[in-house]
Amino acid sequence: HTLALSDEGSLFSWGANSYGQLGTGNKANQVSPSKVPMNGERMVEIAASHYAHISAAMSETGKVFMWGQCRGQSLTSPMLTKFTCTDDVFSAFSSPLVTWRTYTIDHVKGFSIIESLSKAFDDPITSDIKFTVEGRDIHVHKSVLKIRCEHFSSMFQSCWDEDGRNSIEVSQFSYAVYKAFLQYLYTDQVNLKPEEAIGLLDLANAYCEASLKRMCEQIIKKGITTENVAMLYAAAVKFEAKELEDFCFRFALNHMTAVVQTQAFSQLDDSVLKEFIRKAAIAGAFKY
Q: Long-range contacts for 22-31 (Cβ within 8 Å, ≥24 apart)?
């Protein structure tokens, strides 16, 4: 069957009518358009499908009507429903269940949790606490810090002096390092140069942040040179970063002649230097 809508909002139908889907008050087929009585309502939308024997229409006032085969019953005249759109008529009463128009999917991308948290970092409007490092403020949220970090979870318990305060001064670490750490808690990412990551590795070690520690090690590896490998090796030993220590040692072993002539190598403390030489000897660095 076929439905047609005029510019004036009048509804016409024709075709098969075995279930009253034409809305003419009977089940007689129509070979030419016949006006469907809608009690003076002006229609703005009509709905029909060749897969089902049901029809629907919506008036300009938002009323939705249906007629035809509705769950085994035949409605030969339009019946007012409680639906707010014609799609609901088909989803509730069509047999088989079909849609009268092609579905479209709108890809409306909202912010993910990480994206929303990233935007909240260092926001003085929504934050409830700030850290002052080297005279500069970093605005954060206690709840985020407590959820993401065991150190802060303990810090903000009532037995700590810092609990209840909205400003805490930090002197153990640089501003760049501490900001990178707090931002990591919001974004799960680290944005630091390899040479600055050593300070963050120190912080990760002090705060027992294993994941952050591994991330720092990966960043540091990318910046290793013959000039700084001795210093990075010493830092890895100090902060118990075993993977980074082994990486630095292998790098130094492959560039031994250049490394031992650097200032960083000459500044190694005795215990680190002795252990480095011992390991190098075992690895066969002094065969010749």
A: 22/55, 23/55, 23/67, 23/68, 23/76, 23/77, 23/78, 24/76, 24/77, 25/76, 25/77, 26/76, 27/74, 27/76
- Taking alpha carbons only, the member of 167, 161, 203, 163 closest to residue 183 is 203
282: its two tokens: 């075992």
The Cα 278–Cα 78 span in angstroms is 94
Q: Is 249 helix (H, G, I), strand (E, B) or coil?
A: helix
CA 239 from centre of chain: 33
pLDDT in tens, the chain (288 residues): 999 999 889 999 999 999 999 999 999 999 999 999 998 889 999 999 988 999 999 999 999 999 999 888 899 999 999 999 999 999 888 888 888 887 777 666 777 888 888 999 999 999 999 999 999 999 999 999 999 999 998 888 765 555 557 889 999 999 999 999 999 999 999 988 887 898 999 999 899 999 999 999 889 888 899 999 999 999 889 888 888 899 999 999 999 999 999 999 999 999 999 999 999 888 887 765
Q: Could you tell me the pTM of the whole model?
A: 0.56
Residues 109-189, CATH architecture: 2-Layer Sandwich (3.30)
| CA 54 – CA 23 distance, rounded (Å) | 10
Largest CA distance in the chain: 108
DSSP character at residue 41: P
Cβ neighbourhood burial of 188 (10 Å; 0-12, 13-18, 19+): middle
Residue with the two structure tokens 């069957």 = 1
Please tell me the distance from the alpha carbon of residue 17 to that of residue 24, in angstroms, as a whole number.
Answer: 9
Domain extents for the chain?
2-93, 109-189
